[in-house]
Amino acid sequence: MLVLTDMLKKHSTLVVCRKVVLMNYIDLHVHSNASDGTLSPTEVVELAASLSLSAIALTDHDTLSGIEEAQAAALVVSSSANPLRVIPGAEISVAYNNRDVHVLGLFLDTENSLLKEALHTALLKRDERNEKMTANLRSAGIDITVEKLKASEGEAVLTRAHFAKYMVEHRYTKTTKEAFDKYLNDSSPYYVPRDYLSPEKAISLIHQAGGLAVLAHPLLYKYNLEQLDEMIALFAEYGLDGIEAIYSMNTGFDEGIVRRFAGRYNLVITGGSDFHGNNKPDIALGSGKGNLQIPEALLEPLENRLKTRPL
């Protein structure tokens, strides 16, 4: 039997018919403290390098602000033997059937003026929503303001994860789950819906910025299979390119279900951990809940889709 010693951490090793097959791994759904992660873009890149990932996509919520820093950090940590690629991305919230659905933009031109303007507008609308939500929470006896959130979070895009973190730190709730269950979920009397982009507009903006539009974590929206099929079919009509089939929260046959939708609508497959640092402490970069493996080989069909998609 073949014995392997001192293999590079960079590779997972499979032994098939006495031949060694080396596989690199990637993570195409990653957050930094430019939105609701807890690590800076530089720290995310340094962690990815320490885990020997060959590529990550930085996909902060409705912002491109961390990408330049992440790509600069990648130049520092990369070497010819262990290169690390940072793919510019964003996770864009859209409205579908009165729900918040997320579309990942990958391979984005971060200088595209149309996308930058749309994301800036989305952030302004997010700020308006946050002001209303903090007012609602103050009526419930919680001493919270947008200014207090920003004082601890800096220039990050404020999301409900920051609200939950604040409530735990100030002992209004014991856990972030309790914060969401009592105050922050969309059925709570304190919740305020956002004014979202339409799916068609978001996909169009991603394409105009030279990127691929990918439906993030499709099974998290809690639709039945018929409803999910309707949503994916509609998004595909708008030009959806891919779907996140490999994901931290998958169980059982989840990946297979999503892959069947990908085949039905000619969508490329992506995968990501949805890493947020300590805001989702059970999800690790690259490996999710411990067994996530996203092969680098997924990049080739994604890049082919970019080359062949009509302009």
Q: How would you describe the overall organization of this protein?
A:
- The protein is of the alpha/beta class.
- It has one domain (22-308): TIM Barrel.
- The chain is 39% helix and 17% strand.
- It contains 10 helices and 9 strands.
- The strands form 2 sheets. A 7-stranded mixed sheet has the order 3-4-5-6-7-8-9. A two-stranded antiparallel sheet has the order 1-2.
- Helix 5 (160-169) packs across helix 6 (176-184).
- It starts with 11 loop residues before the first strand and ends with a helix.
Characteristics:
PHP_dom, TIM Barrel, 311 residues, 10 helices, alpha/beta, seven-stranded mixed beta sheet
List the helices and strands and how they pair.
Layout: E1 12-16, E2 19-23, E3 26-30, H1 41-50, E4 55-58, H2 67-77, E5 85-96, E6 99-106, H3 113-139, H4 146-153, H5 160-169, H6 176-184, H7 199-208, E7 212-215, H8 225-238, E8 242-247, H9 254-264, E9 268-272, H10 299-308
Parallel strand pairs: 3-4, 4-5, 7-8, 8-9
Antiparallel strand pairs: 1-2, 5-6, 6-7
